């Protein structure tokens, strides 16, 4: 038990470049079992993100972490975060401010998911996006290889103004495909956020619930004043920065549910139908 968020180093992780359509990023991989793509949060693959990956490995998954930005293994700091955000705001592969748009990075992540699916057991793979990459996990679920998408505090497009607060982070056509998959193959999306988080506004989850209905499972942690876990109103990172490994802690319970969600869907007999797999 500790009063700090779990951290780990990249010891034992195997990096290798993965390229699709001329885009290359190093991908750090470790573990055996069903595949899970774990996307970094700002400013990159920090020790806290690695700790989440290590936990998933310990639970029996093969984890692939693409280094989309930042320096892998470096701890988070305000300076590093500011430097990365400045670059991400103008990067066309991410479109941090655009609404109802296809983000080029999603094509790369779908290819990575298909590659991992081909090399790991089970009916498909999971993907976890957090903060800046939260919505990218939803966009990746357009591909039938992805059968367990988890979106934790999705913050893109940056929620400046009412329209961006409600934008789901994917184009309308992409969301329509995810909704169609949910109706056809019982695909489910797991979403996590803090109740007072303005970086991932409640309106975004409301818009997703309007479109996905019961196929959108939501875990909302209480961060209102006086909450039992002592979260501040600025609490944001459910699975990393705010997590404490102690019994009864709501963020640890949320992580447990993520593991359960992945296990339910990635073991034999998961939710990708035979017809969808052929597609």
From TrEMBL:
Keyword Hydrolase: yes
Pfam families in alphabetical order: DLH
Recorded coiled-coil stretches: none
Keyword Hydrolase part of the UniProt annotation: yes
GO molecular function: hydrolase activity
Keywords of this entry: Hydrolase
Gene source species: Haloactinopolyspora alba
UniProt xrefs under InterPro entries: AB_hydrolase_fold, Dienelactn_hydro, Dienelactone_hydrolase-like
Record-annotated Dienelactone hydrolase domain positions: 32-231
Protein name stated in the entry: Dienelactone hydrolase
